Amino acid sequence: VYKERNLIAHIRRLAFASAVKSVAQGIGDDCAILRPAPGYELLITTDLFVENVHFRPAWHPAASVGHRCLTRGLSDIAAMGGEPLACFLSLGLPEDSSQTEVTQKQVTQKWINGFLKGLLSLAKRHKVQLAGGDISSARQVTADIVVIGQTPAGKAILRSGASPGNRIYVTGALGGSAAILKQLYAGKPIKPTRSNTHFYPVPRLEVGAWLRKRATAMIDLSDGLSVDLAHICKESQVAALITAKLIPIAKGANLELALHGGEDYELLFTAPRRTKIPGQIAGVKITEIGEIRNPADYSSAIQILGQNGKAKPLAQRGWEHFRKKR
Ligand SMILES: [Mg+2]
């Protein structure tokens, strides 16, 4: 199957193709050495990707899995208003060809190459160096990704900064990834093209960095609007009122998917009413969808104003909702 030492040498060659100056020492020593800019703090995020939980080999090409894996980490850095510096990848790979769909198809080396290509081309695009990691045998393909980023000290945008009167905004359009997933579950063949944001989501790093001086709270939409807005409400100890007809719905999706579908990797943020937020940031559409309210006014944290002009509580049904259908 794969030869661990050869694979490490291969990954090392690929990693140095995107060497950046914030990494003083990359792959090849006991530790990596990172050099954040003076006066900056480090941001660290980790994500675990597991075959048949986070991706399915039958649905997701290897390059898409690598891309989605790194997007998840980059999107978290974006959600803090940070810039990414380096990533670390630990891979668990099956050795016995009977164990997983990936190896059943006899594509292990090809699969790994595709995975690395997907991950590293996204890394290169955002000047993030692969600075270390590990490889082990495992029952199923498992990828653990760590992304390190930086922000000026004390300037990261937290989930806890929203206050009553702040406007609520989202980037892009919502529900697109869940709409594709729904079709995949229904057995529809979907072409995994580069422009399809389910397979190749775009981390909103430029938008996140632009918002660092303007947003009061921010989170990336990985679990779905209803769940992620609830995180802001909980951490900020506020309530929220959103308006159904203002929510930007992705092509092929509907309001339900836009509210509860996960993995769009758009940004959800709040800003004071007086702060001017343009309709577009770095070429990405920005939509105001509601307002942060005083929690004392509401029985539940999030209310949604429907087409009938009446507000009702919005249930938190995120990504888990889709997972249970498996
Ligand atoms: Mg996140």
What would you note in describing this structure?
With 326 residues, this protein is an alpha+beta fold. 29% of the residues lie in helices and 26% in strands. It contains 9 helices and 14 strands. The longest helix has 18 residues, at 62-79. Helix 2 (62-79) packs parallel to helix 4 (108-125) and helix 2 runs parallel beside helix 6. Bound molecules: magnesium ion. Magnesium ion binds at residues 76, 79, 219-220, 222. Magnesium ion (MG) binds at residues 76, 79, 219-220, 222.
Task: Give a quick rundown of the structure.
The protein has helices at 4-16, 62-79, 101-104, 108-125, 176-185, 205-211, 225-236, 255-260, 319-323; strands at 23-25, 33-34, 40-50, 83-93, 129-137, 142-152, 167-171, 217-220, 239-243, 267-271, 280-281, 284-293, 302-305, 311-313.
Secondary structure topology:
Elements: H1 4-16, E1 23-25, E2 33-34, E3 40-50, H2 62-79, E4 83-93, H3 101-104, H4 108-125, E5 129-137, E6 142-152, E7 167-171, H5 176-185, H6 205-211, E8 217-220, H7 225-236, E9 239-243, H8 255-260, E10 267-271, E11 280-281, E12 284-293, E13 302-305, E14 311-313, H9 319-323
Parallel strand pairs: 4-5, 9-13
Antiparallel strand pairs: 1-2, 3-6, 4-6, 7-10, 7-12, 8-10, 9-12, 11-12, 13-14
Helix pairs in contact: 2-4, 2-6
The chain binds magnesium ion.
Magnesium ion binds at residues 76, 79, 219-220, 222.
